[in-house]
Design goal:
Shape: elongated
Largest sheet: none
Distance between the termini: 63 Å
Radius of gyration: 22 Å
Number of strands: 0
């Protein structure tokens, strides 16, 4: 019968039997198993914003008198300009060297079960393998994010007037939710091969997948952490949408600061 205490114990110990020999193997396996069982499930889900179809709906357009005085064309053009600005800023910030790896805010951590075991890996002289995987998953995210630009821009271009009005008056995350609804599925397909290519170079990734998938069957690892490539892809998308959301909030807070008269006019009319 599968025992949870063997999952990450095997992950670590297979990497370097010689280094592990200096330790009491049973104790090390028990500690690693405990770290696996205590791993917080749903970390990627917590980072992802939840869809709210009401914010994107066809509801009546309401707002300030200044906003009501604007034509639908002005509202649509102003919002599209603002969203294009937010997309460009977010993609440019994350999709570059150290956009993830060099940022305390955006860096993608190892899956929680493996993160909890990393200190023990270092004690066993295997910290370099954890470091290699840490670097690989963040470099993969940096390489994948630029692929999102065209899909996000197309989502802006295809936006209807009803979408534009709903987003404009739907709160600080309305546009971010719109992007998530429109692009998450195709972006997942775009990101996965890029992430897979990077993690394939790190042996610890394959070892983790083997044992994490078994652990998931027993509820010891959440489904979103059972595969390293899927985990990294979702984490990268969550952070991309969050970065777009941050830009959206900044524009709503200071539309004039974008340097666009049209954005300033449309978002300024909300005040």
């Amino acid at each position: 019968m599968f025992k949870h205490k063997h999952v990450l114990g095997v992950v670590v110990l297979l990497s370097s039997a010689g280094a592990a020999a200096a330790f009491n193997l049973g104790d090390l396996q028990n500690q690693l198993g405990g770290a696996l069982k205590q791993a917080e499930p749903g970390a990627a889900q917590q980072a992802a914003p939840q869809a709210d179809s009401g914010a994107m709906g066809q509801g009546a357009f309401t707002g300030t008198p200044a906003l009501a005085a604007l034509s639908s064309g002005e509202v649509g053009q102003g919002l599209k300009a603002a969203l294009s600005h937010g997309v460009d800023t977010a993609v440019s910030s994350l999709g570059r060297a150290n956009g993830f790896y060099g940022s305390p805010k955006w860096r993608i951590p190892l899956p929680p079960a493996l993160e909890k075991a990393s200190s023990l890996m270092r004690m066993a002289g295997m910290g370099s393998q954890a470091d290699a995987l840490d670097l690989a998953i963040n470099r993969a995210a940096e390489a994948a994010v630029p692929e999102a630009r065209s899909l996000l821009v197309n989502a802006v271009k295809s936006m209807s007037i009803a979408d534009a009005k709903g987003i404009l008056t739907g709160g600080n995350e309305a546009a971010t939710l719109y992007f998530k609804r429109k692009t998450e599925a195709p972006l997942t397909q775009k990101f996965l091969p890029i992430v897979r290519q990077a993690t394939a170079q790190v042996g610890l990734a394959q070892t983790y997948d083997r044992y994490a998938s078994q652990a998931a069957q027993f509820g010891l690892v959440s489904a979103d952490q059972a595969n390293i490539d899927s985990y990294v892809t979702q984490q990268a998308l969550n952070r991309l949408y969050q970065a777009i959301g941050d830009e959206e909030k900044a524009i709503r807070s200071d539309p004039v600061g974008t340097g666009s008269a049209l954005i300033g006019k449309v978002f300024g009319a909300l005040r």
